[in-house]
Each structure stands twice: as structure tokens, then as C-alpha cells.
């Protein structure tokens, strides 16, 4: 695209490249390449270790592009978020729990307590493909531009996996009722468990426990993360090695100084500043 400076009338051509961000379907990072250098804006992202190295568009020839500045998703840029189980680990944990419950009888159903938002599609798709059970959702229209998911979700309540919502769905659940109102099928009461996707993290020296945690008689929490962990952020940045880095967000309880203390040593500008005077 062509940019014109309104005051000087100077023109500059900028090339903008969209890279997959792994945050939710369609999420992208922006790479801006212009005469004054290259900037990468990650937006919200979750990239596994080594994933940046496999992105051809971040490279020219065999080398990573010379990137001046990175604007980085620092949601979990704190050592306490050192490790977050990978997408595959989390997905498999949920899959096995849903499989073992729904295979007991057809009256054993699962409620996925997901916030009404994008990002769980690949979970729905994976469960539906592996188990042959479609996922009940309130409305299909929010997915109308994602044809690949439409086959895996349904508005028919007679299914064993639900991701439907109700304004007071925690109350529903307490009364053994699904948010869509289902309590029984053919006169047989349903046995319902709920699984709440939430981020779980492990410190560097912490023992990694299961990606599924039982929180009550029929409630579970399952690991799920839309953002890169501390070690994934460091891996990404030390691969890109920009001159400068700017955090897009502050981690919960963190300060900008603390985040910069972590990120600066991974930038090229650090060496110069750190040289003895
Ligand atoms: Zn988001
Ligand atoms: Zn439902």
C-alpha cells in the first residue's frame, strides 16, 4: 500500500503481510515493511515453540527478516506462566474426558462451559470428528462465515455435547439442567458434567499436573489458552531478535518495567546498552 505524508506530500510504499497468530480462527499478526524498516505487530497470539522458525514469510532466503520493532502480546509474560500445556495436550485431555463420559450411556452428556466467543471452534470440530457427536450451540449465525465448523455444530438439543449458554447457566447446572433447558431424554434424566476451559500455568520448576482438574462432583476445569506462555514468548522473541520490543498488554499484577526487564535482553539493542562505559 502507498502512504502519503499529509504535510510534506512525501510518498512511501509499505508492504503489509498477514501471518497466522494462532489466537483464534482468522487471527493474524501484521508485518509492515517499508523504507524505514520493518515492524511486526503480533496482536493476541499463541505460537508453539519453533513455530516462528517455520513461517516462510518471516524469512528472506534462509534468514529471519531484519525486524526493527516488535509489538508483542505479553499477556503471560511473567515467569509464573512459564509453561502452559500445548494446544494438543489440552485438546487430548478434554477429548478423553468427554469420550469416557459420553460412552457410558446416551444419557451421559457434557456441557462445555465456554464463554460466548470465538476461539473454541477447533475444540468443537475435534470433539465432533473424533466422537461423531455434534455440539449444541444457541445460534449458528455467528459461525456463518466459517463453513468448516457448520458441519460439527447443531441447534438440535438431542446431542451429548453442549456448548449452549443461558444468562444464568451456573444456576441451571446446579439443578442438573443444561442451559438449553434439557434435563432428560425419553423420560430418562440426563447425567451432566461440566467442563470449563481456562488457562492453567506452571512455573519453571513446578511439577506439571494434569490438564484436567476436577473441581466438584460433576465439574471439571480443562486447560485452554489463547495466548503464548512465558517460555513461548521468550522463544519467539529470541528467534526474531528485533532491535526494539513494545509490550501490548501488561500481565496480571505485572508492571511495564518488569516486562521490559524480561524482554530487553532478547533484543539486539540490549547488547549496545549493556556494554561497559
Ligand atoms: Zn482475542
Ligand atoms: Zn444445549
Automatic annotation (TrEMBL):
Residues 147-251 form the DNA repair metallo-beta-lactamase domain. Its main location: nucleus. GO terms for cellular component: nucleus. SUPFAM superfamilies: Metallo-hydrolase/oxidoreductase (SSF56281). It is found in: Nucleus. The keyword Nuclease applies. GO terms for biological process: DNA recombination; double-strand break repair via nonhomologous end joining; interstrand cross-link repair; telomere maintenance. Gene3D superfamilies: Ribonuclease Z/Hydroxyacylglutathione hydrolase-like. Keywords: DNA damage, DNA recombination, DNA repair, Endonuclease, Exonuclease, Hydrolase, Nuclease, Nucleus. One of its GO terms (molecular function) is endonuclease activity. Pfam families: DRMBL (PF07522). It comes from the Eukaryota. Belongs to the DNA repair metallo-beta-lactamase (DRMBL) family. This is Protein artemis.
Amino acid at each position: 500500500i502507498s502512504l502519503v505524508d499529509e504535510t510534506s506530500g512525501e510518498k512511501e510504499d509499505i508492504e503489509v503481510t498477514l501471518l497466522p497468530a494462532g489466537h483464534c480462527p482468522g487471527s493474524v499478526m501484521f508485518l509492515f515493511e517499508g523504507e524505514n524498516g520493518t515492524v511486526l505487530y503480533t496482536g493476541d497470539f499463541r505460537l508453539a515453540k519453533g513455530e516462528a522458525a517455520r513461517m516462510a514469510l518471516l524469512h528472506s532466503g534462509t534468514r529471519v527478516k531484519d525486524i526493527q520493532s516488535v509489538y508483542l502480546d505479553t499477556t503471560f509474560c511473567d515467569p509464573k506462566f512459564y509453561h502452559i500445556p500445548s494446544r494438543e495436550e489440552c485438546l487430548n485431555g478434554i477429548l478423553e474426558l468427554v469420550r469416557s463420559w459420553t460412552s457410558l450411556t446416551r444419557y451421559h452428556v457434557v456441557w462445555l462451559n465456554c464463554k460466548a466467543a470465538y476461539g473454541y471452534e477447533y475444540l468443537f470440530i475435534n470433539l465432533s470428528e473424533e466422537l461423531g457427536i455434534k455440539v449444541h450451540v444457541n445460534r449458528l449465525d455467528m459461525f456463518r462465515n466459517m463453513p468448516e465448523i457448520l458441519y460439527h455444530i447443531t441447534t438440535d438439543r438431542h446431542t451429548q455435547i453442549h456448548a449452549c449458554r443461558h444468562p444464568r447457566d451456573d444456576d441451571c447446572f446446579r439443578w442438573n439442567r443444561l442451559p438449553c433447558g434439557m434435563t432428560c431424554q425419553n423420560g430418562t434424566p440426563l447425567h451432566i458434567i461440566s467442563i470449563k476451559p481456562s488457562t492453567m500455568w506452571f512455573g519453571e520448576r513446578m511439577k506439571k499436573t494434569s490438564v484436567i482438574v476436577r473441581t466438584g462432583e460433576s465439574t471439571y476445569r480443562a486447560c485452554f489458552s489463547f495466548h503464548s506462555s512465558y517460555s513461548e514468548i521468550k522463544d519467539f522473541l529470541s528467534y526474531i531478535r528485533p532491535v526494539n520490543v513494545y509490550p501490548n498488554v501488561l500481565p496480571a499484577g505485572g508492571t511495564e518495567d518488569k516486562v521490559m526487564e524480561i524482554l530487553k535482553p532478547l533484543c539486539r539493542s540490549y547488547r549496545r546498552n549493556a556494554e561497559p562505559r
